[in-house]
Amino acid sequence: MTHDLSKRIARLSAATKHAATALIILLPLGLAAFWLVLAEPDPARFGPSFAHGPDNWSERAVGFGISLLPAAVALYALLHLRRLFVFYEQGFYFTAATVDCLRRLAWASIAAVPAGILAGSALSAALSLDNPPGARELSIAISSGQILALFAGVVLLIISWVMRDAVRLQEENAAFV
């Protein structure tokens, strides 16, 4: 690898590491701020019963709690993404540790899909619980973004398996010398 390319990888990896660090901090803060201050769920996503948002603090707390499921998956992914780019910044590309980060990132991307579907469904049920009978809702939806995340997760998982085998072969070849 050329020196210029290594420097470019290190520079971009450092920027990505810093962005992941910022998101690790901002995601839970933003989620809390949303449910404390802004909480106006999108009626297009959750149904017409949600045009007014949560009615009281207990609904906001339940909404926040349910939202923690996909947020936890995202934080897990961000932690491993940050770790991966720390390794890349230091020039470690094909190691068992980088493969492990990539594999965990892949599984997090895959897990984000059911977490998002479950959280969205739970939110629709929880936030319409106070509605009169017949106006309560259970919304189950999957978005194109979730399909893309699932596909990207599967692709990353396969790449991690290929890289794991490449690392194994590299270690075997190093043992011969």
Radius of gyration: 21 Å
- The first-to-last residue Cα distance is 21 Å
Overall form: elongated
What is the tally of beta strands? 0
- Number of spatially distinct domains: 1
Q: N-to-C SSE series?
A: HHHHH
- Helix content bin: over 70%
Name some characteristics of this structure:
177 residues; mainly alpha
Outline the secondary-structure elements:
Blueprint: H1 3-38, H2 43-46, H3 57-89, H4 96-127, H5 144-176
If you had to describe this structure to a student in words, what would you say it looks like?
The protein has helices at 3-38, 43-46, 57-89, 96-127, 144-176. It is mainly alpha-helical and 177 residues long. It has one domain. Helix 1 runs antiparallel to helix 3 and helix 4 (96-127) packs antiparallel against helix 5 (144-176). The radius of gyration is 21 Å and the shape is elongated. The model has no long low-confidence stretch (mean pLDDT 89).
Give a quick precis of the structure.
The protein has 177 residues and is mainly α.
